[in-house]
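Worked example

This section walks through a single chain of length 110. The input is the sequence exactly as stored; nothing has been trimmed or padded.
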Amino acid sequence: MLLSSQNREKKLENKNLKKNNTRNANSKNIPIVIVRVNPEELVYKNEDEIRYINDKLNKNLRLARSKREDKSIINIEKEVCYIQRELESRMKRKETHNNFIKNNAINRRL
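Given that input, the structure is written out below as tokens.
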């Protein structure tokens, strides 16, 4: 009885090891795709598209860091900076607009 439970545990461990090895092998084969971002075109994209590009770049950045590909890391980080700067300027613009609307509404009441 004891031997059979130990055998089951060993089989389960072996199965888990094989799964992990397969996952690691698959992650090494995933290509790193560097998405080039034209900062002038970002102005015309909506926020959802920009966030999608940002997510894709961050995924590729994590992948490049795990593979320790320095050139890819630097290129992807540049592209992420363009995206983050655009998102930041949109947030500031939105905040400024909301303040303007709020102040304008107060002035109209007077």
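What to look for: The chain has two domains: 1-30, 31-109.
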